[in-house]
Amino acid sequence: MKNLRKQSWLRWGLGGLGALFALVVVGALVDGWRAFGQRAIGDRRARMEKSTQWSSGHFVNPQPMVNDLWGSLVGAFNASKDASPSQPIPTVRGGAERFATPPPSGLRVTWLGHSTILVEVDGHRILTDPVWGERASPLSTVGPKRWYAPLLALKELPPVDAVVISHDHYDHLDAPTLTAMKDWDTTFIVPLGVGAHLEYWGVPASRIIELDWWERTKVKGLEIVATPSRHASGRFVTDTNATLWASYALLGPTHRVWFSGDTGLFPAMRDIGERLGPFDLTMIESGEYGSAWPDWHLGPEQAVTAHQMVRGRVMLPVHWGLFNLAFHGWTEPAERVLVAAKRLGVTAVFPKPGQSFEPAAPPPFERWWPELPWETAEQAPIVASQMN
C-alpha cells in the first residue's frame, strides 16, 4: 500500500513538473512570438535560393566556422566576474540639436552602444543595427539586459536616410525598435531574407531593399554596398542561417566608411579593401568573443587585423559596452584593441557611448572605463580558422 502511495505521489509530482514546464514553454512562445519574426516565402525565397551563398536550404560561409560546444560550456563556468559593470558607465546624452549643424569635415559618427551607430557622411545620415529595446532577446523578462537606457530617444533622432541592418540576431535586429520605426520616411537596407521580418512588423515592402553580397544600392547620393562577412543568423531553433548576414560599405562623394556587422576573420576582407577602400573609418566589432567560437567574432586583435585588411585609416571598435554576451571582462575588448593598435600603428578611437566625433580630427584618448582585470591575447587568443 505504501509503495502504491509513493508511486502515486511520484506520478503526481512528475506530472506537475511536466505541466509547469509546458506552461513556461507556452508562455515563452506567446511572449516572443512577434519577435521571432517571419520566414521568407514566394519571390523573396526564390531570390534567396539564387544566391551563391545558398546551399541545401540555408546560407553558408565560404569558410565553415568552428563551434566548440564543450568549450562554450567550460567557458561559462569560468566567466569573468567583471563581465558586466558594477557601476554606471559614463555616457553622453543629448537631443537632436547637436546634429543641427553638419560636420565641418563631412564625416561624423555617434556610437550609441554595441553596434548602433549614427553615421553622418557627405550630407547623409545612416543608422546601423538600431537597438532601443530593453533586452537582446525575444522575451520581455529574460535575456541580456542593456546596461544603460538609450542615449537618444527615437523621436529625438534627426531624419535618417537609411537604416542598415547586418543580420537578424537579437542584439542587431530588435523587434520593438523596428516596430517603432515602421512609419519612418526612410529606407531599410538588409541582407537577403531579413526583409520578411520587417514586413511582418509593419515596415512597408516599398521601403525595404534586400541585398546579396557585393550588391549595391543608392540612397540619394550615397552608395551602399553589402559586403561579405563570416557569421550566422537565426531567431528561433528552426531557422538557423535562413537569412543572410553582411557587412556594409558606405560610399559617399568624398568619404568612405566600412561597418563590419558581426564577423569572424576571413580572406575576402582583402577583396573588400581592394575593391572599395581605402576607408576613412572602419566600425569593427571587437567584443563578445570567445576561444570556443573563434570564427563567429573577430576578437580585439583580429579586429585590428581586419581594419588593416580592408584598408582603414581610423578604427572605431564596436559591439561592446552595452550587453553581456560573452565570458570575458566587459572592459577587455578596449584594453586589447589598445595594445594591438599600438603594436601595429593603427589609429583607434574610444568615444564614450553617445559621444560624437569626426575621424578627420580624432578625439584625444580618454580611459573612461575602470581599470579591471583582463586576459591578454597570449592568455586567451582568438585565432580564426581557414585563413590560408
TrEMBL record:
InterPro entries: Metallo-B-lactamas, RibonucZ/Hydroxyglut_hydro. GO terms for cellular component: cytoplasm. This is Outer membrane protein romA. It holds the Pfam family Lactamase_B_2. Residues 124-320 form the Metallo-beta-lactamase domain.
